[in-house]
Design brief:
- By secondary structure, the protein is mainly alpha-helical.
- About 70% of the residues lie in helices and about 5% in strands.
- Strand 1 (about 5) and strand 2 form a beta hairpin.
- Helix 2 packs across helix 3.
- The longest helix is centred in the N-terminal third of the chain and has 32 residues, at about 10-40.
């Protein structure tokens, strides 16, 4: 058996794959958080719960309506985004002129409410959701076997993250969003409905969480705690990448997923804390994050 760094090659490649998959979800979730914080200055602690809602909506569309994975890939994020729009218009918008902690506490309470509702409705053990037949099976790459669905998740995450980054950083819409957060009065003077723009931005950010939930449904047990299990790590990713940095959230998400995967091979006890150790080191050396800008 081929050995790399004293470890069996299949084990290393397997953990690399697992790390990239985890990094895919870290990147997509932290991207939504970075958009919401960077453009709205709201720390959305309900992001993990909305990720969970996206997975349950996917399961519900199939279980109750017979709607398969591919339509759900479009429908579920729209439903979660609509829920996010209602949350922003009904709750979040009243915190914009208050201290940032009010928004954090509000969304933290909302996360607890959502998790409690789904726990009462479906139990804590969760429900199963199978990958579509088109993406079943494995591919022999010679050095490892790659499950087709896992490969699809990685490619989908890269495409989604790249498209969102390009939209925010390189298009007129992205420039308009950034301008609306810096000088809303000026943008309003040009005939732009700033409150609507902000609401749609929040909805788009949580829609990304819903989309990640759709992709996660066939990989993990769809359960009320699946979001809370990730949210701490995702917030660490955002802090390391730089609060509000879109590109930083993407690169850091994938990078930390890979680091976590390799840590599982070389020193498993540290795999659950390595992300937070990296965060501590980054904050000591670059308080604004790797890609953030100092205030």
């Amino acid at each position: 058996m081929m050995m790399i760094f004293g470890k069996p090659a299949p084990l290393l490649f397997g953990q690399l794959l697992l790390g990239i998959i985890n990094g895919s979800f870290y990147a997509m979730l932290s991207l939504g958080l970075a958009i919401i914080f960077g453009l709205l200055r709201v720390i959305n602690f309900a992001h993990g719960a909305l990720f969970m809602v996206g997975a349950f909506v996917t399961w519900g569309l199939h279980h109750y309506l017979g709607i398969g994975f591919w339509p759900a890939l479009l429908i579920a994020p729209v439903i979660v985004a609509a829920l996010g729009l209602g949350i922003e218009r009904g709750l979040i918008r009243f915190t914009y002129k208050l201290d940032i902690l009010y928004g954090l506490l509000l969304t933290f309470g909302l996360a607890l409410v959502l998790e409690g509702l789904f726990t009462n409705g479906f139990g804590s053990s969760g429900v199963a959701y199978n990958a579509p037949d088109l993406l079943s099976g494995v591919v022999d790459l010679g050095f490892m076997f790659l499950p087709v669905y896992r490969g699809f998740v990685i490619v989908a995450a890269i495409v989604i993250c790249t498209a969102v980054w390009f939209t925010i950083e390189k298009t007129r819409l992205g420039a308009l969003l950034r301008a609306a957060t810096e000088n809303p009065s000026l943008v309003q003077a040009f005939g732009v409905n700033v409150p609507r723009l902000i609401a749609l931005t929040f909805a788009g950010g949580v829609g990304l969480a819903g989309l990640a939930g759709v992709l996660a449904a066939p990989l993990y047990s769809v359960n009320p705690n699946m979001g809370s299990a990730l949210i701490d790590t995702v917030f660490a990713v955002v802090v390391i990448g730089g609060m509000g940095s879109i590109g930083g959230a993407i690169l850091t998400g994938f990078g930390l997923g890979i680091i976590q995967g390799f840590t599982e091979v070389f020193y498993p006890p540290a795999s659950s804390v390595v992300v937070f150790a990296v965060m501590a080191i980054v904050l000591l050396t670059r308080p604004a994050g790797l890609f953030g800008k100092a205030a």
